[in-house]
Design brief:
Blueprint lengths: L11 H21 L11 H8 L2 H5 L4 H6 L1 H12 L2 H23 L1 H8 L3 H4 L13 H10 L5 H17 L11 H16 L5 H14 L5 H12 L3 H15 L6 H17 L2 H17 L1 H13 L8 H19 L4 H13 L10 H16 L7 H12 L3 H11 L2 H7 L3 H15 L5 H12 L2 H6 L1 H4 L4
Length: 468
Amino acid sequence: MGEDSKFELTKSDDVEESISLLNGKINEFLSNLNLPIANLVAEIESRKEIIVNLPQIFKNLPLEKCKQSAYLSKFVISTFAGLFDAALNYMWNELINHLRERVASFDLDFFYDVVIKDADERKKYTTKEDLISLRDATLIEGGYEIGFFDEGTFMRLNHVRDLRNYSSAAHPTEDSIDSYELIGWLQVIIKKVLSIQDTPPVVEIKRLLNLIRSAILNVDQIKLINESIKKMEGEHANSLLKTLYGHYIDPRKEKSVRINIQSIANVTWKKSNDKTKYELGIKCGQYAISDKDRYKLSREFFELVNGLSYLTEDEKTIELSGLINELRDAHENYYNFYNEPPIAKRLIRWIPPSGEIPKKVRQTYVETVVKCRIGNRYGVSRDAVVYYDTMIKLFRDQEIARFLDYITRSSFIFNYASSSGQLINLKTIARMINQNLVNKTLKDAMGIIINNTWNDIKSHLDTLWPIS
């Protein structure tokens, strides 16, 4: 409450006398009503331990905020009466009210985009009143994700929430609350949440969102915004990405908003972690079923940031299957040197940095890429080689096993055994695969391919069978 505070430190003896007097009056009244009085409230000494410390704790709370905190008044009254379980409940209610007000005054769209994971559920949340429908756990998680408080505070608040659910007057319980626990929880909530103003990163995100919702950004603004995003901490970039995505796919948003997002989405995407990207991929998959307009814009967003590989496995399987078939057809028909590169370029956009390929298309993917990289009797499509090499270098043990399965078939040897150029290309593939191999069996297999002729490779078929 700062310099404007009118609090004076409460004298311990005066507090004890006041609590004892109140306690006696309450017990007398309960007795007159023939109600039980034993083991109902905290000991006088425990209440005193809290009351005498309250002035010092409340000094951390700005005066204006203090005057608006009705639930904290109820907390003090309950503490004075020895009802620590009720006091905990009122303290929690003050926290939840504060977070709702802070979210509403900050940016509702931003908050909902960050915290609502389910695509269909997100569409239900648009107004301040909708905050009441959010579970307390979700509200706290959202406060942490958008930067209202740090991870340590988030963990402490979750701890208080668990105890509030178990020990407070919100539910019947036999559990008792210790005075020092209650003081500690109050101190965390006041010092770490109620008295904290928006941090610079949070203010910066709000500024960026206001800019992209206004007029179309000019070149200088785009440059400054992208520089600002590059300096963001990971968690703030993750939150911003969720909101940019949410704005981009919302058909109600102005076209200018999407134009602005197109200028800053790639930088934000690169600053964000894989967990966030996969979460957005799941949302996109949900929209494919429930909302075609949002799905169309969602796919557009993922193409914009080159993030197609983060979509759901089902969606990747469908898309990869189509592209693999298209690439194989191009390779086996006329003008393949001309037709392969654009298809290979589209295909590689679906391959994640991990190289993970959906199981249902893994075999046909490996066979097609290897077949195209080995080439035909006229050679390999030069403009497509860079894509094939990149995909092959991402092969994991699972893909390498499929590769060995493919090249050790009699039909494979028969088709290629007469071509020295294709043998050179096969050896090139084996060298690329061998660079980062750890598995000894697979390394030995690559060595046989690298160091032998077609006939010798054929004679080692048994050695080359893949290990799954």
